[in-house]
Write a structure and sequence with these properties.
Elements lengths: L1 H7 L5 E3 L10 H6 L3 E3 L1 H7 L2 E3 L6 H6 L5 E4 L7 H9 L3 E4 L14 H20 L7 E3 L2 E3 L3 E5 L3 H12 L3 E5 L6 H6 L3 E2 L18 H17 L2 E4 L14 H5 L6 E4 L16 E4 L2 E4 L9 H16 L3 E2 L2 E2 L6 H6 E4 L2 E2 L2 H10 L2
Parallel strand pairs: 1-2, 3-4, 4-5, 8-9, 8-11, 9-10, 11-12, 12-14
Antiparallel strand pairs: 5-17, 6-7, 13-14, 15-16, 17-18
Helix pairs in contact: 6-7, 6-11
Length: 356
């Protein structure tokens, strides 16, 4: 659908054959939209703008022409070597992670669109692994009480997890170190866990807790973790290790058969016993740290991501021609490299600190 919109906007669209197959978008569907189906080499050789999901490999970057515009989820704070290569090759790159958190950019916010999918899927992953029903059921043998679900982190993923758990009939509690999220959690039907620790930071993310605040958090939160049948953790900050919120002792206090789904596994995990990408049973509690969760819902992950890219491209294409205004606050905020320079201040600082 989005490829067709770009074609109708006067853009020539090249798609690598088979690129959509894993998400059930078949090659003939692209051809029907006026897309030119080709191979990877031609895409890299001819592209003025290259759209990707995962960051490109060094080999792919070296095949791009100077001045090519690269757009995608580039994970720049963790891929400093790649960023340096992009600058060296004079590739103009925009990292969707760097988009400013402003109203105008919401339709382009791939972090949010993918996090929403992640939060939804996390509850289903937990329900599938739990040895209990989530909803209350009335049966001939009596009433089965609903499962207790605790969602830690009330960002986009956490809020979607709350909504999904409620739709499945669970009793839901939610916790976030940012007290302003309480109203959002309660509006979705969750009971907010009050810890009296405020860690509101900049850019919509939480700041790091002090040792005293962390001890207070773990003391109160541990009681709620112990009572939960399913815990979903979502606390992650781009470019930094995930905060450790659930300790071994907290896991040991949980009931046998309980489940933890740790969505922060890509940053090391919110739980002390999480093994990224693996299912780990500790003290008879199942702990799963899934990676790349949006790929488990590939159809809608691809649909929403492509719309994010399309909305960003609309700022850069005029009458079928590439004409970006680098003074635009959205494009300027997302700009990672241009004209052999690293532009993003946070990434540039990390590279300078890492230099010998």
């Amino acid at each position: 659908e989005v490829a067709g919109k770009l074609v109708r906007a006067g853009v020539e669209v090249l798609v690598e054959a088979g690129a959509g197959a894993a998400a059930h978008f078949e090659d003939p569907e692209y051809v029907a939209q006026g897309v030119r189906l080709t191979d990877e080499k031609t895409c890299l050789d001819e592209a003025d703008v290259l759209l990707k999901v995962q960051p490109p490999s060094a080999t792919e970057v070296k095949k791009l022409r100077e001045g090519t515009v690269l757009i995608g989820l580039l994970n720049p704070l963790r891929n400093l070597e790649l960023v340096g290569l992009l600058a060296e090759r004079r590739i103009t790159s925009l990292a969707l992670e760097l988009l400013p958190r402003i109203t105008r950019a919401q339709a382009m916010d791939a972090l949010s669109s993918q996090a929403s999918i992640t939060g939804y899927k996390a509850v289903l992953l937990g329900a599938d692994r739990l040895s209990k029903f989530l909803p209350m059921l009335t049966t001939p043998t009596g009433t089965i009480r609903p499962a207790k679900v605790l969602i830690i982190g009330a960002g986009v993923a956490g809020l979607q997890a709350i909504a999904t758990a409620k739709r499945l009939g669970a009793m839901v509690e939610a916790y976030d170190v940012r007290p302003e999220t309480r109203e959002q959690c309660e509006s979705l039907g969750a009971k907010f866990v009050q810890v009296d620790v405020s860690a509101a930071g900049s850019g919509g993310y939480a700041r790091e807790l002090t040792a005293e605040e962390r001890a207070r958090q773990q003391e109160i939160l541990g009681k709620h973790v112990a009572r939960a049948d399913l815990v979903v953790t979502t606390a992650a900050v781009p470019g930094r290790a995930s905060p450790r919120i659930i300790t071994k002792e907290m896991v040991e206090a949980m009931r046998a058969g309980s489940v933890i789904i740790d969505l922060a596994a890509e940053g090391g995990g919110n739980c002390e016993v999480t093994e990224p990408g693996e299912t780990n049973v500790y003290a008879d509690v199942l702990v799963y740290g899934p990676l790349n969760v949006p790929s488990m819902v590939p159809y809608h992950a691809s649909e929403t991501y492509s719309k994010n890219l399309h909305n960003l491209l609309l700022l850069m294409v005029k009458d079928g021609q590439l004409a970006p205004d680098w003074e635009d606050e959205v494009l300027a905020g997302a700009l990672l490299t241009r004209d052999s320079e690293v532009i993003a201040p946070a990434v540039k600082k990390l590279i300078e600190e890492a230099a010998p």
